[in-house]
Amino acid sequence: MIVRLLSDEKGSAIIIFALGLTVFLGFSALVTDVGILYLSDYKLTNAVDAAVLAGAQELPYNPQGAVTQATNYAIANGLKEEQFSIEVLKDNKLIRITAEKDVNLLFAKVLGFDTGKVNHVAEAQVAAIVGINGAAPLGIEKHDFVFGEQYTLKVGAGDTDYLNQEISPGWFGALALGGPGASTYEDNLTYGYPGSLKVGDIVNIQTGNISGPTKKAIDYRIAEDKHVPYCTVDNFERDCSRLIKVPVIEAVDKKRVKIIGFSMFLVDDVTGQGNESYVKGKFVKTIASGEVSPEAQDYGLVGVRLVK
């Protein structure tokens, strides 16, 4: 009887061990393979988000370039072309990438599962800039922009008829960003205003011709443009030192203006001193970093945001 009892206990132990091993393998499959799927999903999401943001940098002006850029980024981040598709939508202002990838599993194979799937859909949108850092202390009044046509952004003392007379007659197109004074103005024009400006902000004008600081700042920017070929309206680098972010404004009273948008100006030249001080150039359509809104009016300067 004792021998039979011992034999029964050994048999039960084997059964319990077998059941326990099955449960252990099941938990191993659950923990390990869920971890593999989670990591694969994380990598796929990052790759697709990076690709869609890269592609959006070419919108809305170069939709085919957007597809090419997004494709290159997706492949560089480990995806194969058959694993994703790209669409450009909404008047070339939105790009969508849909991706799906099979993931090889480890322990789950014991339970009959060889692979799992991860997928991700990302969308990036371009829209008008409504908030920006690094603006130039020069304002342009709202009007119908003709991109590529030469404008006088800062006028001389004899040409204030170009400007809105609701603003002070001592205004020549300059803004007092961060406070008044020639030194502050020159720094802001040379390097861009370090603070943030947003649509709806009320800012003070900078009175006086301040031709000396204007010429020094613009001469510096022109000298810093080392790009070959030289930046033009039809062919420029986005980091070109001659590109300045310009607030689009409307008068509030004789000393203040309201920001209603932002544009980008490619400086051609700064001429003269004193009453003959001008800043000439052309407005261009391009993209920059900043806060965006699809509801805002587009003055040629747009930004990118991930919307999905």
Low-confidence stretches: 1-7, 157-163
Beta percentage is: 25-35%
Nearest-angstrom radius of gyration? 30 Å
Percentage of helical residues? Answer: 25-40%
Number of helices: 4
| N-to-C CA distance | 72 Å
Instruction: Give the rounded overall mean pLDDT.
Output: 84
Could you say which overall geometry the principal axes of the C-alpha atoms support? elongated
Order of helices and strands: HHEEEEEEHEEHEEEEEE
Counting DSSP E segments of at least 2 residues, the number of strands comes to: 14
Largest sheet: number of strands, sense, barrel closure: 7 strands, mixed
Instruction: Provide the structure class.
Output: alpha+beta
Whole-number total of structural domains:
2
